[in-house]
Each structure stands twice: as structure tokens, then as C-alpha cells.
Amino acid sequence: MKKRILAFVLVAVCSLLTLFQPSVVMADGETAVPNSDGVEIVNLGQKTITNNGVILAYRSEDEAQVDSIQFFNQSTIVQKQASGKYYRTVAYEMALADANKTPLTDYKTYDYDQYRRAHMAFMQKFIKDKGMSFGKPYASKEILYRDYLLKNFPAEQLDTAKYLIVNGIIEIYQINADGSDTVLYTINSSNKDKYYPEGFESLRSDILTRYVLVDLHPPVPDYWPSVPSLTYTGEPGSKITIPAMVYNSGRQDITDFAVAWDGSGWQNPVYKTDNLSIDNGQKVDTPFTVTVPNATTKLWLKVNTDGQTPASEINQSNNTICVTVEPTGVDLALFMDALPPSIDIPWTMTSYPGEIAVTAVRNGYDTNPIDATITVYTPFGTKTLNVTGIKGDEDQEFTIDCPVSAAGNYVFNGIIEPTGGLTDIDPSNNQASCTMVITKMAAPKMPKIEVESEIKGQLGG
């Protein structure tokens, strides 16, 4: 069974009356305490961390079981603690609970202190060997694998319970002159909301992060890409960087992110990154660089590109967004249609009121208005149309009357040009033409009618 991790954050600060403000997203590190009995601690280096509220569990790929849980801890590592008062988390009490948060099992004690001591010894050597600073906040993650959890809870209950209640046991202690320590007060679930010893009241909010609920049936991952703007511009041929991000509103998992030009397909992305690990409610920055094309082009951004990374993501309707990359400058386009393109007119009609529909389009999303001139060459002369104040992604429509009387093919050509000294960056779409085909019905032939007179006369008597 593939192992995946359930993560939650518990801030553990061991310095004198000091609370570090959270700010850093966790990254993979190196093993500090190897897994020997279902517990492992990983050193994440010098950084700070935070608890994101209700903690989301991670289950196996088929959702059938809980594989492991993970604590993120923060500690201040010193070579030797000076005299003073400190606090430390020495254990956790854990119980499975139902949807109403009512315990289903007895509380089991996770003896964290023995692993904490091993971690501290590793970190002291690590900091010294690396030439790093003591007295700074260092982060770690502590993994309780399924093997360890099954020592405390039956598999059926572990895999079907809604919550895991986690209550910390915190000791407030004093370092004596001889280096020994004396426990002054113990905080647990029964007194965590009551009295705190002098000097520790200001740390109450931090200490309370040791009392959490783990959702053992969390929402599945839900990833989506995001960008600050849906339009980006630059000089044709230049490179621009688009500051994209990928968010997750479900449990942590691994996904990918790719970018492709419209019509190129996901097999030929201009950018792709794999193995994005994003926790619930978090994001990762995924900036990418593209070359500005000569004409306005759509650019597609997608997460979970194959729909199976991860396969557990149910809502994939928000996995794709589209942005527009356009060259700096003006891009006008012209369209012309004959109304109608062809018609048979009666032989009795001396003139038919044909029309030419002319449409000016400004590509892109530039909100600065410009003017342009449309020149239409018709069989009956030249027509000039004025385009006024057109903005990006807008169009203006015109109609030219073209009364025709004789049968034939009438060809109309047009060109659009920006005014005010502006130059069109893509002249390939500045011209248009259309043809009106007129046929004239022949007058019907009248049938020859012979009339026989019924008046007869006789000669003679």
C-alpha cells in the first residue's frame, strides 16, 4: 500500500517565554530520529511554522485506511539552557471520536518526550557541524505511521472513526543552578483553559495549539491555478514572466502544473512542473516565462494535467484557466459580408437594395480607445467609414447600401487602418472582401392563343 501522510501543525517552543510568529511553508528535510517503532522525526531546518486550525488526515490511495499522521513542531535549540523558566511538550493523549466529537476509545498516551530528547541531541550536533546558530527556531516534522497507530487503536476503529482527538501534555519547568530541572506545573486538557503560572499567560494561545482535532475523513484534494490578471502584454519576441499560483482546498497530495499555447495540446507544454505538494488552504508559486507572439494568443494553465495526479481529486472543473498574451500595440481586423451573398431578382425589378455589412474588430484587451478609417472599394465608387473610440475586445458595425439592377458578380474590397500615427502590429487581418452574386429571372414567355370566331355568314340566297 502506498504511504501518504496526514499532516497537522503543533508549535513546540522550548525557549524562555518566547513565542515565534509563524511564516514559512514546510519543505522536505533529513531524518533526525529514524523510524524504528512507527515514529520518525525529520529535521526541516531553521524556520517557523503555524497550525492551520482543523487538521486534515490523509488516507491510502483507495481511501480505505489511515496510513500515517504527522506533527510539525518548532523548537528553539540551545547548547545549554540557562537558569530560568521554560515549557515543553512531553506527551500527547489521543482518542478516536465520532462525528459529534464524542470519544469512541480510551485515551492513549503518545510518549513524545523520549523522541523529543533524541531530536534535541541530533539538532545540537547538526547545528554545531553546520556552523549554524543556536538559540534560533528550528522546525521538524514527526510522523506516526500506521504501524504505531495500530498499537493504540484497532484497525476497524482507526479507519472508520471521524476524528482523532489530540491533547498535549505540557510541562512548565525551571532550570536550577546545578543544571537540573524542576517541573513547576503541568498543563493538560482538564486545566488548559484555567490558571497559567506567572509569566506564561501571554503564551496561552500558543500552548493551546497542542489541543486539536484531526479529521480522519477529510475532503479530497481540490487544486486550481490562479493568476493576478487574465491579460499580459509585451513587445513581440520579448519574454515575459507570468506569476501563476496553484491552490489546494482539500487535503495534501501531489499534483502537477502545465502551461500550453492554444491548440498545441498538453503533450507540448511551454512549461511544466511536477511533484507539487500543497497542504489544505495553502498555495505554491509557479511563475513561468513565455515569448510574446506576434498576434494575440490564448495560453492555457492546468493542474492535474492527466486527471490522475492525483486520482482522488473529484472536482476537476476548476483545474484549467485561460489567459491572453498579446503584443504591445494596435491590432485591428476587418470583416465584410454581402447581404445577401446571392439572389435571383424578378425580371420586373429595376433595382435591388443590396447591402454590405462591415465590421471593425480590435483584438486584445487594451482599454485605451483609438480611431481608425475603413476604406471600401465598390463597383459604384469608394466609401469611407470612420471608426471612433474603439477599445480592445470591441467591435463596431457599419452598413453600406449597394442597389444593383443588372445581373453579375459584384466584388467589394475593404481595408482598415488606425489613425493618429499608430501602426497595426498585424496587418494580415486588415483587409477583407466579399462578393454579391445577382441573377435576374427571365421574363416568362406568353403562350400563343388562337381565337376562332363563331360568327358565320352565307353567300347567296
Structural features, described:
By secondary structure, this protein is mainly β. It has 3 domains: 6-215, no CATH class; 223-327, Immunoglobulin-like (Sandwich), CATH 2.60.40.10; 332-440, Immunoglobulins (Immunoglobulin-like, Sandwich). The chain contains 4 helices and 30 strands. A hairpin with a 5-residue loop joins strand 10 (163-175) and strand 11. The termini are far apart. Residues 1-27 have low confidence and may be disordered.
Tally of contiguous helical segments: 4
The overall pLDDT average reads: 86
Helix content: under 10%
Beta-strand content bin = over 45%
Instruction: Name the structural class.
Output: mainly beta
Shape field: elongated
Largest sheet: 6 strands, mixed
Strand tally is 30
Distance from first to last alpha carbon? 133 Å
Low-confidence stretches: 1-27
Cα-based radius of gyration, to the nearest Å? 39 Å
Q: Domains counted in the coordinates: how many? A: 3
Describe the structure concisely for a colleague.
By secondary structure, the protein is mostly beta strands. It contains 4 helices and 30 strands. Strand 2 and strand 3 form a beta hairpin.
